[in-house]
Structure prediction request, 187 residues.
Amino acid sequence: MDTYEDPATWGPEPVRPRWSLALRFVATLLFFPLLCAFWLAVAAVLFVVGLFADGIAAVSESFGRGYVRFMDDVLGGIARLGSWCVTWPELRHEGDTAYYRARVDKAVGNWTKQASAPREPKKARPPVECEIPRRVYRGVGGRYVAEVALAQGWELRPTDVRKEVRLWWSAASHPQDASVTDTARDS
Prediction:
């Protein structure tokens, strides 16, 4: 885990002042509905423009990819505007390491359950990569996420622990998957 970043950044975030969180929570209550409405309006405009751009995309494949990238950047940028928002659980549990440990355990456990599920025919493969956002592990640090994930069979991916911890399911190349592809290749 120390391969990717400075080990000091893998620790828990400092506890934020209660008054600051309370102000941000009130601002969140006022700002978040406006942000959602703005996001929906921009998404609708991009969808309508996309209907007309579809004609151009039929001729130029690079235009279609560029437009999709543009939409992703615009909508993702609007969503990032809300990164300073504070939720009710964050307000209530700031500094409570037991709460954050439980959140990390639950998040990694859910991803492990999904990734270790057997592959069903004609369905998408289980996820082999995941990101645990900082909001989940803020009170215990990325090091705790890494310890829990490594114990459950995950491997770390290059990550910016100030934003998220990226994981890869190490058992993604199941032996039964290899035998299925070998059988299909022999046929």
